[in-house]
Amino acid sequence: MRETFKKAERLSSKKIIERLFAKGSAETISVFGYPFRVLYLSGATPPDAAPVEPQPPAILISVSKRYFKKAVDRNLIKRRIREAYRRNKGLLFEGTAAHPATDIALIYVAKEKISFDALEKKLKFVLKQIAKATV
RNA sequence: GAAAUAAGCCAUCUUAUCGCUCUGAAUCCGCAAGGAUCGGAGAGGAAAGUCCGGGCAACACAGAGCAUCGUACUUCCUAACGGGAAGGCGCUGAUUGGGCGACGAAUCAGCGACAGACAGGGCCACAGAAAACAAACCGCCCCGAGCAAUCGGGGUCAGGGUGAAAAGGUAGGGUAAGAGCCUACCGCUCCGGCGGCGACGACGGGGGCACGGUAACCCUUACGAGUUGAAAGACCAAAUAGGCUGGUGAUUCAGGCAACUGAUGAAGGGCGGCUCGUCCGGUGCCAGCGGGUAGGUUGAUGGAGGCGACGGGCGACCGUCGUCCCAGAUAAAUGAUAAGACGUGGCCGUGAACAGAUUUCUCUGCGAAUGGUCACCGACAGAACCCGGCUUACCGGCUUAUUUUUUUU
RNA sequence: GGUCCCGUCGUACAACGGAUAGUAUGUGAGUUUCCGGAACUCAAGAUCGUGGUUCGAUUCCACGCGGGACCA
What we know:
- By secondary structure, this protein is of the alpha+beta class.
- The protein has one domain (7-133): Ribosomal Protein S5, domain 2, CATH 3.30.230.10.
- The protein is built from three helices and four strands.
- The chain has a four-stranded mixed β-sheet.
- Mean pLDDT is 74; it is low at 44-53.
- The structure holds two RNA strands.
């Protein structure tokens, strides 16, 4: 798979975001691996559907304004996360999951900036968790 | 050469690989949506704060007045401004002169929310005798009483004391002591014409002087302001539900031999022994229309535009011509990795010139320049419809001007 | 993106432009008690920052800093 990151892979629909963040929703699956809190929805593929090329999931990155007051800092962190995801999203398809994740929210919960190397390592761990844990 | 101030400009750079957004009468693939290749473009001086002003848009609107809010020396610049320019006045500081003195003049630098306090109202704590149509505590002087200490009456703001603020100030005359009581000067105030677009200025004349502060308290005067903001507004428009129209079907009842016509919105089932009650079920299907949600397009990037030349103006700025196209994202595009360069500082070297020691060799100090290495650092900070300002943040670098200072000639 | 409000001891609130910035609670010390609590006495402790207006500023004005609410 090519390491691209197009517009279609960005989660922007207000409705899906609301579903994702709905409190106590059964369809939202939550994974935690510092410094990320991850929420995602897994697509319910109909059993009789023809095996199609797996679509890459749409993702959303969130950095709190509370911890990072300056727009420059928030942008930098989002860019680093996006880059790390782009480089490593292949991990999601290596799992043997029946229902792959379709919409993922990556929430950055640390209070200070983290270097790209460390960030990438943590994100790899989280992505593997998702790929394995999908039910 | 150094420092300070002011103005203007820049605000790390380069290469490689992997990516992001926009874009192309380009090439290829695809019915299309779209994709690939190759080009082109891609954050700021403050993009920030949101403190002002405008454009733009929707709605409102005959005119006038009141209320509310804002602005406040003058003239100008401007689309507009609470911004800017030039000027005036005042205050502060420095320097140089004048005068016995109060004070005043000139030059330079800095600062000023700088309309009005006889239009009216309010307030001025404490202290002090007295704080606003006024006012005598101490003191000084005069008169009266008393042997005296002292007491009573009167004059007086020159002196003391209080305070942020106390009877215009200084010098002289004058007086019982004093006092604009008188004179001169300084200040204040009124009048006159003159200069200036104007704020105001200089000049001449009059008045012995009656005028405390506060309008960033209410207020007065003059001028200005309709309200709401791109989440404004315009357009396209799935799915589902509901609305309207047409077609077609269906429940029950009535009429009719029948086709059909008229009326009705149910029939039925669960809970419950039954009534009542309550719940479920059902009220269709197809096509079209309009409103409109998700979503999308537009608004939205060619502009009070940048650069250059010439011309006008003391200047802010304006005019003409030429030339250029210079971000358009939308849960929001500039990132990651590697290498190198540049800048800053530390350390270790080499070390011109200069100074000192020395007969010399040489040594020491200071160090232009330069090599290596390490370090961290390379600020403040990210467009969100667009402009003009203001304010705040900020590692540094470059250019120009002025002032001060050092060295050499 | 826009609109509005607030900022006073550790905490919650007061204070016409004029006292040593007040009250409650919390904190510390003491009295009382065999000990603790309660009660009583005493003490420490604050005007978000920088300028300006004023004789005088928590209060008025400007700018900044911080916090909060609303518009969908």
